[in-house]
Sequence to fold (342 residues):
Amino acid sequence: MFELSTRTKTVAELPTQVYIEVTNHCNSLCTSCPLTFDHFLPYEPKQHLTWDNFRRMVDQLPAIERAVLHGIGEPLLNRDLPRFVAHLKERGAWVLFNSNGILLDQARGDALVAAGLDELRISLDAVTPELYARLRGVDALPRIMKNLQAFVARHGTQQPRVSLWLVGMHENLHQLPDFVRLGATLGVHEVYLQRLVYFGDGTLIDDGATMTKDQSLYAALEAEQQQLIVACEQLAHSLGLKFQASGATTPHESIAVKGSHPWQGCLRPWSLMYITANGSALPCCISPFAATHYPDIVLGNVLEHPVLDVWNGERYQTLRAAVLSESPAPWPCQHCGVKWSL
Ligand SMILES: C[S@@+](CC[C@H](N)C(=O)[O-])C[C@H]1O[C@@H](n2cnc3c(N)ncnc32)[C@H](O)[C@@H]1O
Ligand code: SF4
Ligand code: SF4
Fold:
């Protein structure tokens, strides 16, 4: 791992962690997601990643230790997903993705298990069909529950490790205790509270969108909500579950502001690359949610140029300098650790 003091603008080694967006199509309409509002459509045409383009990406990365096979889109919509997983497993990587679980039928579940998937993360955001339909735009919770129960009965929750995820918003926080209990009922061992990311200045991208500052819990936690999170940590502990927030050790820690330049602690521009289904390289999985002007965060295209050229190109160097600076504007980095956790 990199020491803060040794981070330089160019990096000799290619990234060992990669996010690969296997599709940017989706079968949901989540109010928190820019895809629902076709926010990137002018820059990211709709695409399922093909096997050939997948190989063009991963063959250029000699040492992939961890591969996340989602970007902004629903991975189960790509029929080649188990083949991608199997290839990365043969290469020795730890492989995971997030999914809405709507298409997790027996055939897909079996194929992913046979391919050697390490982690399956199911995004729920609500435990009642009504709130689920309101926040995720489709009335699919009963079907997802059926899929999950069947998957767990057939394959257990350890290989792959199955976890449940909830993007924390004012609208759903009251369901957190039942979300933790649902994890226990399903036999899942891990549940996660994820930070809501929204466009830098809190712009409302469309009517009904919940990608807003008002919905975000970060740094605006009322005492009551904080107590609820602490109570859920205790509840999870008593049920034998791991309860965590992405990017931090415990949920309540992840939503407290740390230091005056928190983005400077970010190692992602030195350790990982996020590649969209069209080949665009982006700084991280947070940036597409946070960037007000999408072209600003595109660091190059790895289907058009060698990965190494992109990795050490001018745009990447500018990003690295920005993350190390006292004021990374116009990069979305300026809000990391300030408006959402790192
Ligand atoms: C963009 S989705 C792609 C994978 C899959 N479609 C899913 O929903 O799990 C990846 C993760 O981002 C989460 N997400 C959606 N909107 C978000 C937001 N505004 N801030 C943070 N995470 C968000 C989703 O719930 C999901 O866990
Ligand atoms: S969060 Fe996932 S399921 Fe929801 S619209 Fe975005 S990509 Fe689709
Ligand atoms: S947006 Fe945040 S997580 Fe992404 S590279 Fe910048 S500081 Fe790191």
